[in-house]
Amino acid sequence: MAKVIFTAWKTKSQLLEVRDEFYPPPTYAGPDLRSHGCAVVEAWKLRGNVPHHVEATALLTDAILHDDAQRNSIFSIRATYSAAFCRFVTGLVDTKIHGVRRTMFQRATDLGLPASFVELRHEATHREPPSLVVLRKAAQRSLEWLWDNYWAGVGDDSGAPALTHDDGASVRAALCDALQPLSGRSADSVPKRRKRDQAVSVAMRLVSVCNVSGNAARLLSSVLLERGFLVPSGRELGDSMNDTFKEWNPVLQRVAESHPAFLRHLIEDLVNDLAFKNTTDISADAPSEALYLWIAHILTSPAWEFHRQSCPQSYVLRACDESPHHWTKLLGDQLRKHASKPKSVLDARPAGKNRITKPKHVRNDSQYAPSQLSDKLLEHGWGFLEKWDSRPLGVVSRTGKGNNYAYLVTDEPTKQSVIIDPANPPEVAPELKSQISSGKINLTAIVNTHHHWDHAGGNGDILKQFKGLQVIGGKDCTSVTKTPAHGEEFKIGDRISVKALHTPCHTQDSICYYMQDGDQRVVFTGDTLFIGGCGRFFEGNAKEMHKALNETLASLPDDTKVYPGHEYTKANVKFCIAVSQTEPIKKLQAFADQNKQTQGKFTIGDEKLHNVFMRVNDPEIQKVTGKTDPVDVMAALREMKNSM
Known about the structure:
The chain is α+β, with helices and mostly antiparallel strands and 644 residues long. It is 47% helix and 11% strand. The protein has 25 helices and 15 strands. Its EC number is 3.1.2.6.
């Protein structure tokens, strides 16, 4: 029997009209109808069956309209914001309402609701109302979340770009339609508040297109540059870009928050246009200067500090070195100068304890002198170990500056080999050629743990030098030809069996590779698991990392040796010892102090003892974080580590 659903509105067009009153289309220039939308929802409440998302939108909007210090007291404004925000969050995550025995944080994770919303709700409910600055920001973010998770899917109308086919032309048209309100407008012709509302509206519509199409994030970067959105028309050499940054930062950052891959594509396209642009006198080229300023702004300014963590800076530097001209030299110098600045860090401490600021240790790479390779390779920003270090199972590893590991895995009887994460071809290729020419290996494939440029960025150059290689990795890896399913197995030669383990979080295409040769077992973990640590949650959340570490990888045999993507052990153990002073952690600290490399020296069993991210069920770790749910403990540990 068909299910009948009674709604508070008579026709869907009425719901769409209210949506446009709360979220006016960018081209709308009429009166502010938000108060009318609130009144309509209030009337609908009398009929019943008003979805929580609709009611919450009205309450939050009404709180914003109530934000007038000339007519209302500050206390009244804060109370109104707090009540609206708390009702919005509670209606989504309260376990009594939904009848599921889960914490509010777990419910929030399931819904994709920021955990900070739950924390702010607790503060507003049980303590003093938060400050107006915090409440205003929370209300705005809540309305954006409601758009993405409810209103954008209500139905198609003129306010949202139509996307009938997921082909390049249709996606480009939808993106251009969404961007149209920001094209060619005069900075003086739009009131400040209206300008901000337009930026938010455009950003939400771009996110909606990206939600529908898997290619939209990449195409958006191309559209922004091809159509000249990011460079003011008529801009002359030396003109300030500050107004342009202020206009576009909220739009680009909002898209990057929802689709992190977008920022990676944007940086790559910006630097490609800058580095390889064919201009006679590029130093006098105003558009090239604008590209330089955009890249420097995103990669060095405080406004982008949170978002740029997954940006491919190594690729930017390499492009600057390979195509040296006026602007790339300036950019390279600025990025290296920015990277060398000493930063202050906070010791990890339990909540409520004093935090002590210490200068961050800056590593001196002079001890890693090149041996057989040319000094010219240092121009690419890499340092080298004196020799390749052979390991069991035919594993050979090499580090470069930035502590990247590349691994060569060889099946000894057949000499079939794969190279894992060859991020820097000038470093890796000479050794591969040497081993191939001497008959030691038969290179068959590149294997990538994830798409970041310090892992998959060298694929293109390696493929040019070594023809016919397969590229095995996540769907976003450069030139990938095969993405193995979770649990899928394949062979290297006759003896080495490989199982792909999907571990999304650091990136959504992260894959760990578990390999066996007889009784030897190893796992290549990329940036998911480090010795004594784990990767940042660039494209995922604590729930995903908990599953990756404490379910997927923890299920491997305890004697499985761990080969991570970077040598971060000294920094990781510094954090671990601040959280817990157990004997295994002290032993790891002593080993790291005495050894430059730790890859392949520790096992999954060891990680369960000295890696605090794999001890989320340990009462000691729970006490330090003040959390008991494993996912909440994981989230708290990551935040503590990020602050160091």
